[in-house]
Structure formats: C-alpha cells, structure tokens
Design a protein that fits this description.
single chain, mainly beta, 2 helices, 8 strands, 47% strand
Length: 125
C-alpha cells in the first residue's frame, strides 16, 4: 500500500527551509504541477508547517499521536469525518484531533497550510 500512496501523492517529508530563511509560498504554489503536492516547509518547535497544493481526494486515515490543523489559502477543502463533512473556504481553519478518522477532498485546485507534530505521517497511521 505504501507504494500506491507514493505514486498517488507527492509528499515531501524533508524540511525545506531553516530558521531565518525566506519562504516564498507563491513560488512554491506556481511550481507545483502535480494533483496532490505536499511540502514540509519548516519546523516550529515540535511541529512542522506543511503547504499542500491539492486537487482530488485523499484516502481515509487517522493520526494516533497528534492533532492536525488545516488552513485554506485558496480554493475549497472538504474534510469528511465519520458523521459530518466540514467545508473550508479561504481564510478558514479547522483542527482534527488525534485518532479521528478523516478524509480531505478538494474539488478544484486548492492551496492549504497544515500544522502537525513533526512525527505525524501525512498518509496516516
């Protein structure tokens, strides 16, 4: 299954920027050509800030050891939970607590920021 996920999603787990480096987010967005691209921008204490440029849907998953924060920059993101769907528009955010099963969907090209523990696997536990 790991190989299938790697083929479907482009998830960069390596931290790209160090402290005191400028992060040119518009440039990263422009350079992103894949349907599901995830960049690990920087580390802040024990968390990682990720940039996602997405279109389509991610698989159902959960994170056993950490909460996950989503913030929409551009586009629309749906977060499916077991008993509801949350719709996020630009400048809206939402926290998924640890161990909560969820799936994200972007009907059109959508740009998001995520903040989560540095140990969290984006594809789930």
């Amino acid at each position: 299954m790991k190989e299938d996920l790697e083929a479907k999603y482009a998830i960069n787990m390596e931290i790209i920027f160090k402290p005191l480096e400028l992060i040119d987010i518009p440039k990263l967005i422009e350079e992103s050509k894949k349907k599901w691209q995830n960049y690990s921008l920087c580390r802040v204490n024990d968390s990682v800030v990720r940039l996602g440029v997405l279109e389509g849907e991610f698989h159902w998953h959960k994170h056993d050891d950490g909460d996950e924060f989503f913030y929409v920059i551009d586009g629309k993101l749906f977060i499916d939970l077991e008993n509801q769907t949350v719709e996020l528009n630009p400048m809206e955010g939402f926290v998924i607590p640890r161990r909560i099963l969820h799936q994200t969907r972007a009907p059109t090209r959508t740009v998001i920021m995520m903040v989560e523990n540095i140990t969290v696997k984006p594809t789930g536990d």
